[in-house]
Amino acid sequence: MPLHDEALNVEGGCNCGAVHYKVAIPALAQRLPRPLAPADAPVPLPFIALDHCNDCRRTTGSLLPALLCAPIDMCFVSLVAASSATLAPKASAYKSSHERWRWFCSRCGINIASTAVMPAGFPSMLDITLGSVRREYVDGEALVPERHLWWDYGVDWIQRLATEGYVTLPIHPDYRLTDTVTLRRPG
Ligand SMILES: [Zn+2]
């Protein structure tokens, strides 16, 4: 589901609170189209994708990371002042693959985003892990992934999980296996 047409702010950060970011997404009319998308079906930036590539799976530690891929001009990142914590808050990066850097909090280790040398014609981008977005922004339907990226590099059963779910598995409301949830399906 594409982002809504209205302007939208999205906030998030790392787990310890040292790194905070805000993405100021303008109304649809002000969003640039992503290069390398069909001319008759433009994809405005930012967009949200499930990413099946091996690098993003490993660096996020998530089976299937979802990314908010935003032009860096829309993104504002801040650090809280150093406190009594043993490690001063800092956003650090390392190069995970050819021309891509992974940004993480040096205090709590959360992978927040990645940047890359982009192909000609692309704006500079910040690919933000959707899991680092604050819960109130993830609730509702504003930030639902709209497409799968790097499908050809994915793991078969993760792709099955993402497209069909595992509807025959028992579902438990919490960590105990004593209760199960019965799914109600529309229709
Ligand atoms: Zn942190």
TrEMBL record:
It comes from the Eukaryota. The keyword Metal-binding applies. Keywords: Lyase, Metal-binding, Zinc. InterPro entries: CENP-V/GFA, Mss4-like_sf. The keyword Lyase applies. It holds the Pfam family GFA. Residues 10-152 form the CENP-V/GFA domain. GO terms for molecular function: carbon-sulfur lyase activity; metal ion binding. Belongs to the Gfa family. This is CENP-V/GFA domain-containing protein. It comes from Bimuria novae-zelandiae CBS 107.79.
